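Per-residue structure
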Amino acid sequence: MRKTFVFTLLCWFSLNPGLFSQTVSYQLGSTEHFRFQSNFWINMHHFLYQKASELKRDRTITQQEQELIDQLKGDDLVRYQESLKFYKDQIINKDLLFNEHLTRVKTYLSGFSNQTLPENADIDNSLFTVLNEFRDTYRKTFWPLHKSANKARFEENISTFREIEPQVIERLYELTEASLPAEKTLVDITANANWAGAYTSNYPQHIVVSSTRTNTPGTTWIELVFHEASHGLVSGRTGLVGSTIRSQSKKLNKEVPRNLWHAVLFYFAGKATAEVLENNGIPDHEEYMFRNNVFKQYHEVLNLYLPDYMTGKATFEEVIIRILNHK
């Protein structure tokens, strides 16, 4: 009787595979302000975008991916080539961060765990057709590698991240005079992200961060997540940072320095992370912007003037005036 029941049950599930897909979870874990996931569809989308763009970035799995590509044959090779052609012809001319359509695509894919993407009236469904057709090839060929890399990066960092998160977030609130939304920010960990290795859209805030870039070793990856979250605290036009830079530039009859606001964001996120890590017995953190020479033209003035603001010796307005007047 029991064997008959089990056999019947297995047959029933085999005829209804969607029941399995409805329960698939890509969640890796949550913290006070963030929820992390490694989503199949988001990873496939960014993989095709990366390969179609032919981005030459240092990644830990580039050789392994190429070996898998070289092993493709038959229908799997055809699906890969057709998907790549579609992305080259239709997708990579759009920026993952700034294009509204790709932002909607990212938001939609991030909430999906089913085996087939249904049509969506707000999105070009030809993209979903391509992803659905490439799905099985990606799942058996590339997804195990990408999923493993995402899980490894998460597990390597989550303990330290949870330990320092409350203090880093509090410090960023102090520095920016702003706060994150009450809803937890979704962080999609992907083997491939954009050219920068991470990017963020707001309303709602949604972070995509690569697990395989070689320029984010150790705690640098943790800082990068805090940096991306800080895009909800700092912008080029509004808030303490953006509005002060613009207003003081106008008063001094100077052009608004290009990307100064973003350099300040990098500095705040890096220094806040380094401070809290050191206070928790993890010294020698090298800030992302200095390790990777990001906005190198601002390194001297930021190091010269921003510490006075961070230690309470000057207001942010006073510091920005000094930066703008620096010779």
Notes: The chain has a mean pLDDT of 90. The longest helix spans residues 143-176. The chain has two domains: 25-156+179-198, 234-325.
